[in-house]
Amino acid sequence: MPLMRESCKKAEDIHAIYELKEKLGEGSFSEVRVAQHRLTHKHVAVKCIRKKALKGKESMLENEIAVLHRIKHENIISLEETFETPTKLYLVMTLVTGGELLDRILERGNYTEKDASRVILQVLEAVKYLHQLDIVHRDLKPENLLYETPLQDSKIVLSDFGLSKIADQGVLSTACGTPAYVAPELLQEKTYGKEIDLWAVGVISFILLCGYPPFYDDNDTELYRQIIQAEFEFDSPYWDDISHSAKDFIVHLLQKDPKKRFNCEQALQHPW
Fold this sequence. Notes:
Strand order of the largest sheet: 1-2-3-5-4
Number of strands: 7
CATH architecture of the largest domain: Orthogonal Bundle
CATH topology of the largest domain: Transferase(Phosphotransferase), domain 1
Radius of gyration: 20 Å
Oligomer: single chain
Number of helices: 10
Largest sheet: 5 strands, antiparallel
Strand content: 15-25%
Structural class: alpha+beta
Shape: globular
Helix content: 25-40%
């Protein structure tokens, strides 16, 4: 059955319009390739989804794509157009070339508070925009924060958005994928909302400032216990030179009780 309605172009014509090139990455039900527009020569990223792998989840996918079409924000990768064949679905997305945030931090060796604050500001602007559309990202982590270009002052864009929810069976499977960033209420299988994204912003801020995560243990049970208790410390000597303001910002985000946690507006107003 055709998955896409009006927003989709004619079936097999993606190859007429784009030349698909090297593979950028691969997931359980899709792969991402660089592609070049045959007329304008513009480069894009194309997510090729195998429909067979999505049996029974078609309506979820349709909803996700409808959501992606609504998203237009400078700090979020956007969906430009969609194509469909009988076996595959192609999503044409913005191509970003600056690499992952973490790679750049490792490359530079040091990351000042000012740098970290600039990154988090952009992440919060993107998350605030999603939350205004009633969308919860649910999978914020440094690997999903990309630089748009290799330039030093490149902006940050949020990626891997939208389709993350399709692949999971129940709430916890995504949670377990990257436990270090998961909010306590997700681990306790309570109902959750936009607050989980702000918890993740707190974890990312912590890592940007000191280079290691606030919750860490080789034993998952112990790791989950730390998260559920929101047990973390600003260890010496790593945190000795970091401002009180930065620590205060993190404390307000890593609140065990989602009701006490900062929302995007409060976080954006914080002096840090």
